[in-house]
Amino acid sequence: MPNQDLLLSWLHTLVEATANVAFALSGLLAGIRKRLDVVGLCVVMGLAAFGGGTLRDVLLDRRPFFWVDHPVWLWILIAAGVAAIFLLRSSHFEFTERAIQWPDALGLGLFAASGTQLALAQQLPAIVAVLMGVVSATFGGILRDVVCNEIPTALRDRRPYAVCAFVGGWVYVLGVQFTWSPGAAFLLAAATATGTRVGALLSGYELPSGRDTRSHE
Amino acid sequence: MPNQDLLLSWLHTLVEATANVAFALSGLLAGIRKRLDVVGLCVVMGLAAFGGGTLRDVLLDRRPFFWVDHPVWLWILIAAGVAAIFLLRSSHFEFTERAIQWPDALGLGLFAASGTQLALAQQLPAIVAVLMGVVSATFGGILRDVVCNEIPTALRDRRPYAVCAFVGGWVYVLGVQFTWSPGAAFLLAAATATGTRVGALLSGYELPSGRDTRSHE
Amino acid sequence: MPNQDLLLSWLHTLVEATANVAFALSGLLAGIRKRLDVVGLCVVMGLAAFGGGTLRDVLLDRRPFFWVDHPVWLWILIAAGVAAIFLLRSSHFEFTERAIQWPDALGLGLFAASGTQLALAQQLPAIVAVLMGVVSATFGGILRDVVCNEIPTALRDRRPYAVCAFVGGWVYVLGVQFTWSPGAAFLLAAATATGTRVGALLSGYELPSGRDTRSHE
């Protein structure tokens, strides 16, 4: 089915682009908040965008990395970092976390599905494959926050994020088990992760936490 | 000597189990202290338990990782993270660092010995092999503390920990040099690391430090 | 040209030695400031000296690491960490960041050139190769600061550092493009990175930053 392969490959490219932009913007926001210089903005954007996928590929011993195969993204990142510095000087420029949470949810779905897919293709156990999807989707943000000297948001804000990637990954595993077409399994997995994330954002649902901490913070 | 091989393999499994539980519990304690959510608890437990061994395997270019070979541990970690959240809600639940320092000392010995063994099997220089044992034993805790936004305990508390792994590793190297049986070298190395750690804990011995810092903290 | 090869190899060794000592000393300073114990000093020195090159080699899937090939450096690091603890006790001992910024600039040039060279030898795209040089030169310091629980200096102090490595890397790429001899390209690239760094230090030049932050810190 060359047509489906083409669609999948085109979807992959679109997915990666959307996810990379959303993840890089989350890095930009974090870097601005920490008053980093232009080098810092570029590094934190790069970690947020490519850190999760790169860590997944190091763990899976997989080469080339996304940014080696598509080096144009490195230029885009550097250009965005430099542009951000100059835009920031006109202090009217303002954009918020809220604005990027929708493309970010799309990125979450696509990384969860593609991470799980790549790991399953290496015959890894299902739980490992699903966690590779979670790593792809979340560790960019975790590395971004570690370098910014914060406890990572993904580990403490009680908003479902990694959990949505986890659920989406299992949808992919089940799809493969039931011998759906790879494209259908991929799409449904990504849609599940993105959908549960959007649902959680809209409903304000919070994960259980040990003790109520809202009053202390 | 198939019997000895069997004993070694069984010992390895038992060792890894004890070490993993102790290391994961240290992650759980750190995560609770930082008020992480359920995802954060699972990630920090996973880093504490598997981070050191996984970093060692990445450096040695060795696959599969322990948690890929034994994926049941991933389920145990997730179950423990979820259970901890619910146990914490009944606020009577209390457990302390002190309670896990003995199984943790056991883990220290076993990781030091097995890390050194794996690196020596790759014909690496003795000092590199010993440091691979130290990395296995300590970097789980270091990654745990970095993600929790703390200066790692292992680097500043002046309690011998990495030093015990270092001494144990050299015992293994000497054992191999003197052509002891691998099992005997392994056991003696692990016992040395664990024993020096237990001795340090019981005696309150502190490593030399540049200036006396106790009065300032 | 065996003579040139010999010169290059000898230069490489000298370069690595100077860079390692300067980078390790920056780790020592950071560790002392954070009141780490002797283990902490050794770990932070090791991260500062070998972290950048090791991360580059993990990303390039390249073995053996520098410190596996030259394990004597591990002994030097450990000896330096132990010596530092005892020197610190005689409180007259004092040395400053300023004293190491010149050998550090030399290290910057040499790591930028060698990182770019190693990546180009793997046929990676030019921008990736240049960034591998930047990673070699800067990530030791970034890992040092992350472990010391600081936002990395390289990302926020607005002093050109990564930028100098970036410029030097491009000189190497251009040199190869114009088929200069590898030795000439290497030397000119390293000299450019070191020279721009020294120029920036002497002139007090600062990178553009979003908003003026000097008054707030």
From TrEMBL, chains A, B, C:
It is a multi-pass membrane protein. It holds the Pfam family Gly_transporter. Residues 14-87, 102-174 form the Glycine transporter domain. It comes from the Bacteria. Its main location: membrane. The keyword Membrane applies. The chain crosses the membrane at residues 6-29, 36-52, 72-88, 100-120, 126-147, 159-178. Keywords: Cell membrane, Membrane, Transmembrane, Transmembrane helix. The keyword Transmembrane helix applies. It is found in: Cell membrane. Belongs to the UPF0126 family. PANTHER family: INNER MEMBRANE PROTEIN (PTHR30506), UPF0126 INNER MEMBRANE PROTEIN YADS-RELATED (PTHR30506:SF3). This is Trimeric intracellular cation channel family protein. It comes from Ramlibacter alkalitolerans.
